[in-house]
Each structure stands twice: as structure tokens, then as C-alpha cells.
Amino acid sequence: MSNSNGDFSSLAVGYAAVVRISTVSAQAALCAALGYFVDRRWGTTPWGTVVGALGGAAAFGVGLVAAVKRLERDGATASETSESVRKPDSVDVDAEISAESLKTEALRGEFEETLERAAAFLAEKKEASKRSEASEQAGISPDVGEAERRR
After folding, report:
1. Which of 77, 81, 82, 123 has the fewest CB neighbours in a 10 Å radius?
2. What's the domain range around 65?
3. pTM to 2 decimals?
4. Gap between the Cα atoms of 107 and 114, Å rounded
5. Which are the contacts of 70, defined by CB distance < 8 A and separation ≥ 6?
6. Residue finishing a domain among 33, 66, 86
7. Digit-coded pLDDT (tens) for 112-143
8. ∠ CA(132), CA(134), CA(140), 5° rounding?
């Protein structure tokens, strides 16, 4: 029902329960059938069937209790295993904080660099806009003014 690392799926748990209960039921039916066979073979009607049915009922009860206990034990093991996976016993909080701080500092550096590039881009656009306005006021087309400045 569990693999080597203790993982359980609800489908596996359900399938195991069905198999166990089916096995116990088959044992009870087999006891009753054996009693019926004894009755037919030796002519002890109805005592063989009655004893077989009672024996089967007793086997069913014992098997059912055992199956339920095993399912409960397996379910408890599954929940303990899943909790231990979710909540590790020893967590180095200082190391986690240090790692997160390093990530935060790296992100802050990237953010500041991006802001500087954006500011430089905006300043360049603003300067280009001013040159364009000055060229228009002077009556020079922006393309011609740019070409003249380069010379």
C-alpha cells in the first residue's frame, strides 16, 4: 500500500480497503460453501451449512476488524509521513533569512539599475524633444538640423 518513501494516494488506500474486505467476504462465503458441501456429502443437512455459516461469520468479523485496524494504522502512517514532508523538523531560520536577504539585495540592485536606465532614457528623450522644438522655431526641419549639428 505504500511505496519505499511512504507516499499514499487516496486511490491506493481505497483499493486496498476493497481488496481486504473482498478477501474477508470470500473467506466467509467459502466457509458456508464448505458446510453445504459437507451436508451434501455426508447427509448432515442443515448442520454442516449452519456450522459453516457461523464459522464464516466469525471469520468475517475477525478479518473485518483486522482490516479496519490495518487501514487505520496505514492512514495514520500516511498522515504522519505527509506532515513530516510538509514540516521539516530542523529548519535553519538564519540561513533562510540570509538567503532571502541576498535575493532582496540583488533585486534591489537590478531595480535601481533599471531606474537609472529609465531616467537616462527619459533625459535623452527630453533633450531630443527640446532640440526638435528649437529646430522648428528656427525654421529648420528636424532632419536637416540633426544633419547640420553632426557636421
Report:
1. 123
2. 10-86
3. 0.44
4. 10
5. 20
6. 86
7. 888 899 989 999 998 988 888 888 887 765 55
8. 80
